[in-house]
Design a protein that fits this description.
By secondary structure, this protein is an alpha+beta fold. It has a single domain, classed as Ribosomal protein L30/S12 (60s Ribosomal Protein L30, Chain: A, 2-Layer Sandwich), CATH 3.30.1330.30. The protein is 48% helix and 13% strand. It contains four helices and three strands.
Amino acid sequence: MTNCLNAIRNNKAKLVIITEDAGKTRKKVVRECQSLDIPIVEFGKKDQYFRSLGGNPACYWAILSQEIVEDLMRELKQYGGD
């Protein structure tokens, strides 16, 4: 969470992914993103990411690469995302 917030506050995040079951800090992350016009995608559940990616379960990811953001957004639109 701290790394994600730092990336947002330092305006390095190009996109933030938030899980559908994000906890009590969700409002803080959304507010920070909105104040800097950083797009947000709400997608999946924390345990799904944990099973897929391993490591510690997390609810927030800051994507720093514009190229990755463009690829993700293209995939989300193709498969029914907003």
